[in-house]
Write a structure and sequence with these properties.
Strand content: 5-15%
Bound molecules: acetyl coenzyme *A
Helix content: 40-55%
Shape: globular
Largest sheet: 3 strands, antiparallel
Number of helices: 18
Oligomer: single chain
Radius of gyration: 23 Å
Mean pLDDT: 94
Strand order of the largest sheet: 1-2-3
Number of strands: 6
Distance between the termini: 63 Å
Order of helices and strands: EEEHEEEHHHHHHHHHHHHHHHHH
């Protein structure tokens, strides 16, 4: 017999179905709660609310486990390419040679961007944050490709997916070129996805662009680590926007905006700025730990804590072990890495952080690597967005394929009761 959960309230009992996930996670299905009882649940920040069933990513925050379609993130980061992982996440299986070649070629066919998009970029001030530019340009794709805004069949979805996968890194690179005042370059179809991204960001007309394999490898690993993280803030945003059948381009544009916030993807920029501030202040790590613990001080240790990981973030472990190697290979010495290590060691021994289960998250060390790779600070979150793109696409596609209903939460109204209108002269 399938399990039920019983809610007892004011002498009445109500039964709700119980679902068991593939990893024995238990969920009470309260979707009929309001119909049955007239009541709703309250869950600020959705800390306990499962908004969907998903077959893409499994994560166990207590054990520090992250798997995509059943494969461990540690294996994917070391053994697969960015595009292979993207294919796996979006379509459910590791691709065969033929499948990945077709996907790669279909994406490359879509890597041209309408020249008129450059007019939109030209309208931004040079100081524009590239996340704002990227979000706007991604939304603008709806205007340039109206035939792919209302997609229903798998084939139409595939075309929209290849379109955005092809154009997104171009738009991201152009957002960077805007800040730098450098020319906007197109992709070179002889290069792979990650090489192209770096080339478009750094190629200048006066010099031959020579790819650096160490930079490419480190960048690919970082992008893979960020590909999906189940129902995080930006992904939930993509699903919520997409649930109204808004286009993939509009949904991803909203995801970029959600990712920009300093409590989410924007944290990688904040981490490096915090480490710089500690360095400029004389490097007194303990002073900043005290500030982070002080409830009257808004300062938080950026790159620490996670909504789901309460033990360790497996992505942070992979990045931490890469940080040393990358800096060594590139012959760079970054004093902020020492501050980061000191900060981590001190915080991990401190009862405040131990009791609240606050550990370094993926963003704690990624900024240090990005900087060693020559990525400017304001582009850190853009790199995260490029990494996360396949996850947003996969979650949007899964939601549309499963015909999920429009997302529309309820609320508990705590405002004024009904009252009579007061004329202006009596207020
Ligand atoms: N520094 C100091 N104290 C912290 C920190 C921090 N970084 N993070 C949480 N706390 C404290 C809170 O003040 C709170 O203390 P209290 O119980 O005494 O009130 C307790 O730990 C729980 O914190 P919440 O904010 O309730 O935890 P939540 O799960 O809502 O937030 C979040 C998670 C947003 C990531 C938070 O830890 C944070 O702000 N971290 C810094 C920003 C950051 O690094 N974000 C990146 C997240 S990873 C990603 O998006 C890829």
């Amino acid at each position: 017999m399938s399990k039920v959960a019983t809610l007892e309230f004011e002498g009445k009992k109500y039964d709700f179905p119980v679902y068991i996930g593939a990893e024995d996670e238990i969920a009470f299905d309260i979707s009929k709660l309001r119909d049955m009882t007239g009541m709703i649940t309250l869950d600020f920040g959705y800390k306990n609310t499962g908004a969907t069933k998903s077959a893409i990513t499994f994560l166990d925050g207590e054990e520090g486990i992250l798997r995509h379609r059943g494969y461990a993130i540690e294996d994917l980061a070391k053994k697969a390419s960015y595009l292979e992982v993207a294919y796996l996440i979006i379509f459910g299986e590791l691709p065969t040679k033929e499948q990945i070649e077709k996907f790669d070629s279909d994406i490359k066919k879509n890597s041209l961007v309408d020249e008129e998009m450059k007019n939109i970029i030209n309208g931004f001030p040079r100081s524009a944050h590239p996340m704002g530019v990227l979000s706007a340009l991604t939304a603008a794709l709806t205007a340039f490709h109206p035939n792919l805004t209302d997609v229903h069949s798998e084939e139409e979805m595939y075309n929209a997916i290849c379109k955005i996968m092809g154009k997104f890194p171009v738009l991201a690179a152009w957002a960077h070129n805007k800040n730098e005042g450098t020319p906007r370059t197109y992709a070179d179809n002889t290069l792979d996805y990650v090489e192209n991204l770096l080339m478009m960001m750094y190629k200048v007309p006066t010099q031959k662009y020579i790819p650096n394999p160490t930079v490419k490898k480190a960048m690919e690993e970082l992008l893979i680590l960020h590909q999906d993280h189940e129902q995080n803030c930006s992904t939930s945003t993509v699903r919520l926007v997409g649930s109204s059948h808004a286009s993939l381009f509009a949904s991803v544009s909203a995801g970029v905006s959600a990712l920009w916030g300093p409590l989410h993807g924007g944290a990688n920029q904040e981490v490096i700025e915090m480490l710089e501030a500690i360095k400029a202040d004389g490097g007194d790590v303990e002073k900043f730990i005290l500030k982070a613990k002080d409830k009257n001080d808004p300062f938080r240790l950026m790159g620490f804590g996670h909504r789901v990981y309460k033990n360790f973030d497996p992505r942070a472990l992979i990045i931490k072990s890469s940080a040393d190697a990358v800096l060594k290979q590139l012959g760079k010495d970054d004093p902020t890495l020492d501050i980061a290590r000191h900060l981590e060691e001190t915080a991990l021994k401190d009862p405040y952080f131990i009791e609240r289960k606050l550990f370094p998250n993926v963003d704690f060390y990624s900024g240090i690597i990005y900087r060693a790779l020559g990525i400017p600070v304001e582009m850190f979150t853009v790199m995260f967005a490029i990494g996360r793109l396949p996850g947003w696409i996969a979650q949007w596609r899964e939601m549309r394929m499963n015909n999920e209903p429009i997302g529309r939460p309820r609320q508990l109204y705590i405002g004024q009761p009904s009252r009579s209108f007061v004329d202006m002269d009596k207020r």
